[in-house]
Amino acid sequence: AATTTTTTTTTSSSSAMPSSKDQTRMRIERMEADRRDRRLRTKELRANRAEEERRNISLGNPGDVDFVGLVARWREEHAGSARSHEDVGDVDDGAMMISTSTSTSTTRGDKICVCVRKRRLSPKEVLRMEHDAVTCLHPTATVHSARLRVDGISKYCDHNTFVFDHAFDEFSSTEDVYRHAARPLVRYVCAGGAAGGDGSGNGNGVPRGTVFAYGQTGSGKTYTMGGIQRMVAEDIFSILAGNGNGNGNGNNRLDGNSVKIGFSSEDTAVSVAIFEIYGGRIQDLLNNRNRLKVLEDGKGEVVVSGLEEFAVSSPREFLSLIERGQNNRTTHATEANDVSSRSHAICQILFRDKSNAGWRLRGKLSLVDLAGSERGNDTKSHDRQRRTESSEINTSLLALKECIRAIDGGSGHVPYRQSKLTLILKDCFVSKLARTAMIATLSPGSNSTDHTLNTLRYADRIKEKKVCNSFAQ
Ligand code: ADP
Ligand code: MG
């Protein structure tokens, strides 16, 4: 089990991962086989969906036959326009009338990566006769909303398309999301900030990678972030072992790309802290929900005082901490008003210099499961506490958007003091070596289209790079 430590008395062992070349090769082969399987399954599922849609149209879906038909027609017209996630380059698809206005869709080297992930219709949504009103054709996401014409009788379908760095459809796995959205940040931090950083944490600052999950409650934030946390746990120890002296060329990296500079298990200790921000309170999820304070000192350094950091030296130790954090969060969530939808949960992975007496920070990864983005109705609620919480959530999500946008703009004003969330994450916005990924999760149900549109607009504003076409038919 993990050892409880504070930042200055870390006692982790420098246990190296037993990672021979053979093991790595077997792992790669297994992953490739998995990927092939998944592609096949995906193809089958797509065929089934098309069949289902045809059936719905011919039987007359009791929900809304016009709508389902219009969406199906739109999908038929745009079938084949999806790109592969491996493709990098400008979006230039005449059929969708998309152009990239301010920047290219290159994710490599970008400071901000904005992705969307759609889940499948849930059994509940199916029971409610909702239909699938979202289409992800990478790199685009489209919401199909049913609208009534002014005559009040005839319906039409509004299709709103947005372009992102990645759009993951309902057939994408969390591994796909991890590979494209989070892993580049993990690699960047473990390489000591790669381009621009010297790995020493000196002068060039400390590399920081932050991954956010944003979306309506029930859209898949915790599902996606949970999977990403597990993959990070595996990945960092494999990267650190690969950067070590025993295997200095880093060849046991999953993709064979070598990282010559960077942290290794010999020189870098890994520790984990997990906490949540709920109604203005900061609570340690690895330490009895202890209440914590956030302080900004005269030098502008922000510390969460009292936050416990746990040293981890294997994926297993890391995973048991994640589980503990999740349990601490969900126990609470069974109470009224589902606390988990009203709190931000933050998992931080800290890389510290073992050779330095003060265990100086060398890099940091933050994985953030944000509070549900649907807050509009709560502001009319009669429950005062609920209203206050909601307005706090609104404030923090708005501040977050502005802070992330400020990363892209270089220097300038970063309004991080506007909320506890952004204050705690200050360095993720102001550091020159900060990189961010935003994963907006989407509920596909036709009853959620307004929330889904809001989510897409939020994500879109973070990186103004789309020209969206909204047209009726
Ligand atoms: P949120 O954290 O945004 O409120 P959850 O992550 O709890 O939403 O997801 C809501 C439900 O949907 C859960 O039962 C979860 O298992 C399921 N779910 C979410 N995303 C996916 C997905 N991509 N594939 C399968 N099930 C999913
Ligand atoms: Mg959740």
TrEMBL record:
Question: Can you tell me which family this protein belongs to?
Answer: Belongs to the TRAFAC class myosin-kinesin ATPase superfamily. Kinesin family. KIN-13 subfamily.
What fragment of the full-length protein is this?
2 to 474 of 629
Keywords for this protein: ATP-binding, Microtubule, Motor protein, Nucleotide-binding
Q: Where is this region: Disordered?
A: 1-53
* Chain positions recorded as ATP binding sites: G215, Q216, T217, G218, S219, G220, K221, T222
Give start-end positions of Basic and acidic residues composition bias: 22-53
Q: Write out the GO cellular component annotations.
A: microtubule
Return the Low complexity bias intervals: 1-15
Is this entry keyworded Nucleotide-binding?
A: yes
Residue intervals of the Kinesin motor domain: 111-465
Molecular function GO labels: ATP binding; cytoskeletal motor activity
Keyword Chloroplast, does the record have it?
A: no
Q: What is this protein called?
A: Kinesin-like protein
